[in-house]
Amino acid sequence: MVVVAKDLMSRKSLSILNINYRYQLFAALTVQLITFTHGISTGWLSPTLFHLQNDHTSPDFTLTVTEISWIGSLFGLGSLLGNIMFGVLLDRIGRKWCMYMLALPVICAWFLIYFAKTHVYLYVARFLIGITGGGNYVVVPIFISEIADPSVRGALSSMAMLMLSFGILAGYIMSTYLDYYVNPFIIVIFPLLYLIAVTQFPETPQHLLRKHKISDARESFKFYRNIPKTIEANSLPELRTAFEELKDNILKANGKSEKLQVDDFFNKEALRAFFTAIMLVSLNQLSGSFAIVNYLSDIFAHTGTDIDPNTCTIIMGVVQIFGTCFSMIVVDRVGRKVLLLASAGGTALSYTSFGIYVKFASSEIKLQYNWLPLVIMTFVIFSTSIGLLAQVFTVIVETLPIKVRSAGTSFSMAALSCMVFVALKLFPELMEKYGLDNLMFGCTAICVVGFLYVLIFLKETKEIMAAYYNISHHCICI
């Protein structure tokens, strides 16, 4: 057994399929079930709102544009609460208990959706879904960063955006082809499975060390490195050295945690970084990149195309996955700034084309070229996916000075949640009041401003602190 364990410790393969990383991979896949559930809950909304406006048989109530805007936007307020609540609890009660708590709001939300008698039920459900989403982007990245070996941390972290995109696509498909009352029964299975599966994994070694539970931390350390329980740590010099280094680093950090001063926030470098964060968060949300994901079916319905709006929405879900994969593959080769410029510029051109089509195309043209809105929106979704949705938080984290990076990231997440609320609240109301064409032109203007800011003021950033690597991947667009 000792020989086997030594062999495990000596393998250097970077593949996440290496036996050394087996439990790290299992744990990462398990916790991403809640991300997948969050994606389903996001994608479910668009076809469902279209259904509730055009078919009032199930459930038995109608929705106004104002009510739709509240159903969409309360997600943002819930996300803000989730950011704050789980940020406070993470170090107090531990990663494991926070992961248990993540499942409860979304489970309650799907019961409310099933028993909905009025739009108020959907208000509360969306708020609860937002709490899980906001907490997810705090808890899961930290958990993965603490259990993962540095050589596979990036790969395990990158699962988040993919799982979210696959979840959104699944939500589009399920709400399009399944009855309103069938969806909750299926979707609630995922957080329940997550809740059961998470019990199989121990607390992270880092948190246990901070609580001075040395023996438990050592066992957790061995578990996530696939070292059998029967092997004593002292019999493996590599394991003992690695654990002792981790313990010393954690205990030293606890002993001399440096307090932040006012001057740390109000200096030229920090203020510039915070201004950049606000600009990028505003570009992320006010460009409509996330609002479109939530209201796609309504948008296609407003174009006058005779292709089923929900079918178009499903196709857009597939395009978003391709955009996410493309961004993951090329980001370290071409850089963040290039992707942001391509994303903002491509989105601006696509919005302009979409607005021109809606405003000037005659009924005959719309009938003859009914596929054109689908093609243009494909470019919109692909463009937003490669930068505006995928890279904004990477750049924010890399731009912030190290000393205020944690506080700055929390501030940026809170600002993002507020912007989500504003964007989702205004988007359907502005579309109803001013028309889809003018809304597209307005979003174009924001993309152009963002493009110019990135081009002139943003410096290329590629280096990231290992402890913050995972946080940078939860852009998403909530």
UniProtKB/TrEMBL annotation:
It comes from the Eukaryota. Its main location: membrane. It is a multi-pass membrane protein. It comes from Glossina palpalis gambiensis. Signal peptide: none annotated. Residues 27-462 form the Major facilitator superfamily (MFS) profile domain. The keyword Calcium does not apply. This is Major facilitator superfamily (MFS) profile domain-containing protein. Keywords: Cell membrane, Membrane, Sugar transport, Transmembrane, Transmembrane helix, Transport. The chain crosses the membrane at residues 21-40, 68-90, 97-116, 122-144, 156-174, 180-201, 273-293, 313-331, 338-358, 370-397, 409-427, 439-458.
